[in-house]
Amino acid sequence: MAFSWCSALLLGLVAASLVNADMKLDCRPDYMTLVWSESRSQADTSLFRLGSCVPTSVSAREAVFRVHLNDCNFRMLVTGNHLMYTNELVYYSPPNSVTPSFSLPVVCAYERPKDWNPVIYNPVFNTYGQDDLVFSFGIMNDDFSGPAESTSFSLGSFIHIMASVEQQHHQPLLMLLDECVAATSPELQHEVALYPIITNKGCLVDSKTSLSRFEPRVKSSEIHLSLQAFRFALGEEVFIHCNLLAWDPNALDHTKKACNYVKDHGWELLDHPTYSSICDCCESSCKSRKTRSLTSGKHGVERKAVLGPITITDS
Description:
It comes from Amphiprion percula (Orange clownfish). GO terms for molecular function: acrosin binding. With about 325 residues, this protein is mainly beta. It has two domains: about 90 residues, Immunoglobulin-like, CATH 2.60.40; about 180 residues, Immunoglobulin-like (Sandwich). The strands form five sheets. Strands 1, 4, 7, 8 and 9 form a five-stranded antiparallel sheet that branches. It has a five-stranded antiparallel sheet with strand order 10-11-13-17-16, with no helix packed on it. It has a five-stranded mixed sheet with strand order 12-21-18-14-15, with no helix packed on it. β16 and β17 form a beta hairpin. The two termini are about 40 Å apart.
């Protein structure tokens, strides 16, 4: 994994909701084993999925997953002194089946190593004919030189957020924040209250009513966001969900951009203010196109990421 484990496993949590079924989870330092078993055969065990992964093995009454935590689209969160890897076990029911489709949360939690750097999301994946890309997403100190010492912020202060992509020998890529929302849950669900931060493919809508801003770039592979602490969910745990986008800097358009709102001026493109007209759609709709991945020899790669929990206080 991307960091050294120096503490023992703390806990593994799962929940099963079907009668005559059992789900067991064994969390190890860098991999996990999940076993779904039934006392009588109700579900087609080959139709289970753990995130993006199919079962390692199946039988009539059992589905087994043995996977690494950097596979299957596991999401990593920091909660206090713990690192938590979250995913979902999903059953896709075939037509006319007596067993409905369902999903269950899967969580592996570990003690947070004392010397661990708080990179909240750190997926590593292969790209076509290129070295691996590593996305990082974290809350930083005031000058973005290191991780923040606290995740508690007073209303009106700034939350400094950095997203980056480690490129090694890869073609140069521009780091963008495509969409970001604040929520009161680490998982986005229909009933969860949301606070929009970045919408419409890179439009920092929060900057229209606050002092939030994308900071001038230091590196093309990093993007710095100074987010003014908002009134949403005061005193509660808040999670910031973002879509990270690493893109060809020569292929920017109205769906691949970073736009600040400047009072008495309007929308301004972070990287090339002369071409700020591509931000005009921030007032209407910046129509999206399918993300074209580097695995097909095109222009970019995207990853979902979560920060939190953070707390905003009225003091």
